[in-house]
Design brief:
- The longest helix is centred in the N-terminal third of the chain and has 13 residues.
- The protein is α+β, with helices and mostly antiparallel strands and 109 residues long.
- The radius of gyration is 17 Å and the shape is elongated.
- It has a single domain, classed as Alpha-Beta Plaits.
- Helices cover 26% and strands 36% of the residues.
- Bound molecules: ligand 2BA.
- Ligand 2BA binds next to strand 5.
């Protein structure tokens, strides 16, 4: 049994969940926040047999797109340097960040 932890962008999550449900996977959707941008994203937990890992990964890769976000470096330093007004910089986000971890035990009671 494996647990796939996927951080995806909010705009892609409904399509990913629909595709996963159609293929019979179970998933849990968690609201999360990126540590760098401090903006909302979504973390999906998908428990599956080892044989499902590739298909779940393929679904996520097919649906989740890379997007560019403009971020002001000010957000990281605004609390300390109020007079510094830098230009926004472009950051590329996604498609998705996917972790696959071994599950030691799985039961539904
Ligand atoms: P954030 O942490 O908000 O990061 C958004 C994007 O900002 C990242 O996109 C990356 O392009 C850039 N970025 C992140 N940290 C940076 C840094 N220290 N310096 C410069 N640029 C940086 P992605 O790599 O596609 O990540 C999207 C989201 O996935 C992240 O949102 C975070 O929530 C999650 N994530 C990515 N890598 C992770 C990791 N190793 N562990 C846990 N969560 C991760």
């Amino acid at each position: 049994m494996k647990l796939i932890i996927a951080v995806v962008q909010d705009q892609d999550v409904n399509k990913v969940l629909t595709a996963l449900m159609e293929k019979g996977y179970s998933a849990t959707k968690l609201a999360s926040t990126g540590g760098f941008l401090r903006q909302g994203n979504t973390t999906l937990l998908v428990g599956t047999k080892e044989s499902g890992v590739k298909e779940v990964g393929d679904i996520i890769k097919e649906i989740c797109h890379t997007r560019k976000r403009l971020v002001s470096p000010m957000t990281a330093v605004e609390r300390t340097i109020n007079s510094y007004i830098p230009s926004p910089v472009e950051v590329e986000v996604g498609g998705a960040t996917i972790f696959v971890v071994q599950v030691e035990s799985f039961e539904k009671v």
